Amino acid sequence: MKKNSNYILLFFLLMSMTAVNSYGQSDSTRLQVTYDVRYLNYEEDDSLSRDIARLDIGTYASRYYSLVLEWYKENPQGHDPYTGTRSRHEDVFKNMPELGQIAFIHMPYWLTTQDSVNLFNWQLMEGDSIVCEYPCKKAIVDYRGRTWMAWYTLDIPYSDGPWKLCGLPGLILYAQDNEGEFFFNCIGVEKGDGHSFSFPSYPKKQIVTPEKAEELLLLEAADNDSYVYMMSGARITARYDAKGHRYTWKSKTAVPYELFPKYHKQRKNTAY
Questions:
Q1: CB atoms < 10 A from the CB of 256, how many?
Q2: pLDDT tens column, 232-261
Q3: Which one of 102, 106, 139, 245 is at 20 to 30 Å from 171 when CA atoms are compared?
Q4: Res 8 pLDDT > 60
Q5: How far is residue 67's CA from residue 139's CA, in Å, rounded to a whole number?
Q6: Which DSSP string do the residues of 73-106 spell out, in sequence order?
């Protein structure tokens, strides 16, 4: 979508209107940002998987989620419009359920971590680029086992971005990690349609530390039966694919966003 000066003025107006006393348990979408996401799902994979994700930005909060997964929730029997994609089963809320907080939710079983929005100590770098027709600046940060490079635009003054990434003086339109395992590329920016979003209230939400979340995500891929039993108390007696064929879970190695030395070898940061 091409830049529109009226949108830019609208963004500044919304920013000036944002205040703590506007905070509530729900928000309305003012801006919608779409990302083409490429990621390594398992270390055993030969190529990157693809997802299409959306960042809904409200007056004070935001929600990042998979459009593919959202479509399947609403159309379980419908024809798949996202051929060749694989959704990441996760939601990220910023400033929900509390101001100044980032909540990451992995599904199923609502595995949840909570962090401060002041996670990233970005280093602003020399360099300019164009992403989705917006002029962008470059920044780099070392964060929990990865180095992230981001391109952000001052033309959209929201300190937000895909996944947990935030904290820059403009919207992040492109980001990748130094290992080449995660790529977020903006493919669309448009005025929000005003739909509301709120932090989900699940009855059995599992709130854990980021370190514990990585341990559980690795277990989910390596020994899914044990993971399901640990999270739900249920034992899986048989598995069937979408065509009704029975199959056995094959142990895999998950690729989490955040890497802790206890579970992963320390990776060498790569200069961009």
A1: 21
A2: 888 988 888 767 789 889 999 999 999 998
A3: 106
A4: no
A5: 27
A6: HH-TTS--SSTT-----EEEEES-SSTTEEEEEE
Taking each helix axis from N to C end, the angle separating 210-222 and 224-232, rounded to the nearest 10 degrees, works out to 130
d(CA 190, CA 114): 29
As a whole-number percent, the residues of the chain with pLDDT over 70 amount to: 81
Q: Is residue 156 part of a domain?
A: yes
> Nearest to residue 156, comparing CAs of 128, 122, 131, 193?
131
How big is the chain by its Cα radius of gyration, in Å? Answer: 19
DSSP state of 249: P
Backbone φ and ψ for 218, nearest 5 degrees, come out as: -65, -40
Q: Total structural domains in the chain?
A: 1
Burial class, 267, CB count within 10 angstroms (exposed 0-12 / middle 13-18 / buried 19+): middle
Q: Return the ∠ at Cα 19 (arms to 17 and 24), rounded to 5°.
A: 115
Is 269 among the domain residues?
no
Residue 268 inside a domain? The answer is: no
Residue whose pair of structure tokens reads 């790569």 in the numeric block: 270
Let me know if 143 is exposed, middle or buried by CB neighbors in 10 A (0-12, 13-18, 19+). middle
Helix (H) or strand (E) holding 67: helix 67-74
pLDDT at 76 over 70: no
User: How far is it, in rounded angstroms, from Cα 3 to Cα 209?
Assistant: 40
- Calculate ∠ Cα 165-167-170, nearest 5°: 95
Whether the Cβ atoms of residue 96 and residue 103 lie closer than 8 Å to each other: yes
Average pLDDT over residues 104-130: 93
Domain of 123, in residue numbers: 5-17+29-198
CATH classification of the domain holding 55: 2.50.20
Instruction: Provide the pLDDT for residue 214.
Output: 94
Please state the pTM of the whole predicted model.
0.86
